[in-house]
Amino acid sequence: MPEPFFDFTNKHVIVTGGANGIGRCVAEKFIDAGATVDIIDIDRQAGERIQARCVNLRFYHGDIAEKTTLEAFVSSQKCPVDCVINNACISKKGVLTGCAYEDFEYAQRVGVIAPYYLINLLYHKNLLAGMASVVNIASTRAFQSQPDTESYSAAKGGIIALTHSLSVSLSGIARVNAISPGWIETSGYHEGGAVTEWPEADRKQHPAGRIGAPEDVANMALYLCSDTAGFITGENIFVDGGMSKLMIYHNDQGWEWRRES
């Protein structure tokens, strides 16, 4: 295995939602770069599998939407934390499918309140190593939507605002940035999953010429947590292959409108 570009030897990293998808890729990338990683996830089976497979990884089972879970998780931390990746989020859909009050609230608890409370606890227990780095995984959905995505889009918009607010409050203590992924094919980072081969029309929707991979997000997370990015804080960085910059019309970039039957 080639030497990692970034060295996180002796660094302690937390990744929420680290048992599957982008979070799992981020956790594995930090481990490959020498870090010790704690992941917290609601998926016990996936978390235990990755813990059994990865040296220097500890799995904590719990629902970060619950205040007591976060408090217990932070109490379990035995050393200062160098990097926090707030990755976990969930969609409960939206208006068209009648997303209930409780469902919408739950999406915000996972996607916005939990990241805030986790950092709040780490700060007040003096567990943020200086200079620490926080990376919040947002989404291009904070800026553009498909129908029935209100619960997810609101959470992602909230975490972007939380990012620049925390970056100011934690000045001199931690750098805080966000990554907004676009279309990321995560199936290869779920147990038993295989990477989907998308048709040309989907690839052409991206100026980069392909669908995104979890590694694209994970590599940006490593960069933002590294000393190389020491002058970057309060930023939201798009990792979407240029998809959000490309205007698409009927019969353009391999796409055409068809009337629904």
Secondary-structure map with pairings?
Blueprint: E1 12-16, H1 21-32, E2 36-41, H2 44-53, E3 57-61, H3 67-75, E4 81-86, H4 101-124, E5 128-137, H5 150-169, E6 174-181, H6 200-204, H7 214-225, E7 236-239
Parallel strand pairs: 1-2, 1-4, 2-3, 4-5, 5-6, 6-7
Helix pairs in contact: 1-7, 3-4, 4-5
Key descriptive features of the protein:
alpha/beta; globular; 7 helices; 7 strands; seven-stranded parallel sheet; 261 residues; 35% helix; 17% strand
Describe what you observe in this structure.
It is a single chain. This protein has 261 residues and is of the alpha/beta class. It has one domain (12-245): Rossmann fold. It is 35% helix and 17% strand. It has helices at 21-32, 44-53, 67-75, 101-124, 150-169, 200-204, 214-225; strands at residues 12-16, 36-41, 57-61, 81-86, 128-137, 174-181, 236-239. A seven-stranded parallel sheet has the order 3-2-1-4-5-6-7, with helices on both faces. Helix 5 (150-169) links the parallel strand 5 (128-137) and strand 6 (174-181). Helix 1 (21-32) packs across helix 7, helix 3 (67-75) packs parallel to helix 4 and helix 4 runs parallel beside helix 5 (150-169). The longest helix has 24 residues, at 101-124. It is globular, with a radius of gyration of 18 Å. The N and C termini lie far apart (52 Å). The model has no long low-confidence stretch (mean pLDDT 93).
